[in-house]
Amino acid sequence: MKSITVEELEKIPAEMRTIVDVRKPDEYARGTMPGAVNIPMEEFWDRKDGIDRDKPVYVLCHTGQMSTSVTELLEDDGYDSFNVEGGWRSWLRLLLKREVEKEEQEALTARAAAIEKSIITTYRRGIWRQFTKAVHDFELIKEGDRIAVCISGGKDSMLLAKLMQELQRHGKVHFDLVFLCMNPGYNEENWSIVQNNAKIMGIPLTTFDSEIFDIVADIPKSPCYLCARMRRGYLYSRAKELGCNKIALGHHFDDVVETVLMGMLFAGKFETMMPKLHSKNFEGMELIRPLYFVHEHDIKAWRDHNNLHFIQCACRFTENCATCGGAKGSRRDDMKELVAELRKKDPNVDRNIFHATTNVSLKTMIGYHTDEWEYNFLDDYDEKDAVKPGFSVRGDAVDEIRKASVCRTDGPNAG
User: Fold this and answer.
1) 290 and 157 in contact (C-beta within 8 Å)?
2) In whole angstroms, what is the distance from residue 52 CA to residue 290 CA?
């Protein structure tokens, strides 16, 4: 005896099938599969000759059990007959499942709309304006760009995805987006969280797998640095395969400040995290950071306002990371704590560190360099202009110089 599921049956065009519902007339009247004709079991043998022999016959009862005998007898009589597995009850379950899915999708759509609305209303000043300011000031997005928004599953990258989505929908510049999400080896629970959050927020993910966590598992020194470099390489490569010319990362204002401090305190250098970079290894590719002006406390407030729960760092190396709830902190954790402590004395300390990266006085630098050359203040110290003997200065200018010298007694050039 041949059988068929209700899902398979509904895909067959109506003109190529005959569905016979053998339930009682009152049961049939309360609902049946589309196109089904009612021939009750007790009338079936008297009326079966009216069934078209040129089409397959699909027999439907309440549970798929009583219809088996009818299917077998039709088959013996030369009909191409099939028993509908699970019967009407199976069809009803399918309808109810779809109704629930529809309601869930409507609920998800409504929630995604609320999340989007909060960005441009409640958090317009702290998030939306700062995001669009970075895009404008640093010329991060241009007409015709195809940008891969790199999503790790954390709060920063998920917010960035929504911001980019909103800008694409309502901005004046036309550009394409790919929401690129790599699974570097997350456990099943964390990977499920990433995907479910994307559904809640209405972000269509383009996913791919890698084995980065396994590769760096046995690296004793700086596994996080190697992991980050490898992830970026994989993302660049896949983004380029997808026709993108840029990748967007979710680094924010606080990341910039912490990077400056880490460079000074642990690497003996003054440098910052740039808002955009040309890739040295992937020709024609560029990295952009649209959250450059957005503060982490605003991102956390937006997350909590919308009752969203994201993964933090879901790799095996962060079990003891303070950021992820453990005891031992990373250097970046140390910087967060340092800035928080300094902010108690001066609430603008993080802003001052950030603005220091755009307010560098080269005259007061002992040395600086680019990739091509280095400079030391001694290189042209004796050739620099100075006040020469016999030089006359107006009285009012002398007063200004004296005032300035008093004001700068504690500066880098004091003495």
Assistant:
1) no
2) 66
Percent of the chain residues past pLDDT 90, beyond the cut: 65
C-alpha pair distances (Å), 171 with each of 75, 143, 154, 244, 249: 64, 11, 25, 19, 20
* Burial class for 249, CB neighbours closer than 10 Å (0-12, 13-18, 19+): buried
SS3 breakdown of the chain: % helix, strand, coil, rounded to 5?
Answer: 50, 15, 40
Q: What is the mean pLDDT of residues 37-64?
A: 91
Distance of CA 158 to the CA centre of its chain: 4
Residue 411's pLDDT is 43
pLDDT at 412: 43
Q: What is the pLDDT of residues 85-109, one digit of tens each?
A: 999 999 989 998 898 888 888 999 9
Whether the full predicted model's pTM is greater than 0.85, yes or no, is no
Is 234:227 a contact under the CB 8 Å cutoff?
A: no
Residue among 261, 50, 29, 288 nearest 150 (CA)? 288
Cite the DSSP H helix spans in 181-222: 188-201, 212-215
- Give the chain's mean pLDDT: 86
Cα-based distances in Å from 237 to 63, 242, 413: 53, 9, 48
Helices (runs of H) and strands (runs of E) counted in the chain:
15, 13
Residues 149 and 177: beta-carbon distance below 8 Å? yes
Q: Do the beta carbons of residue 376 and residue 366 sit within 8 Å? A: yes
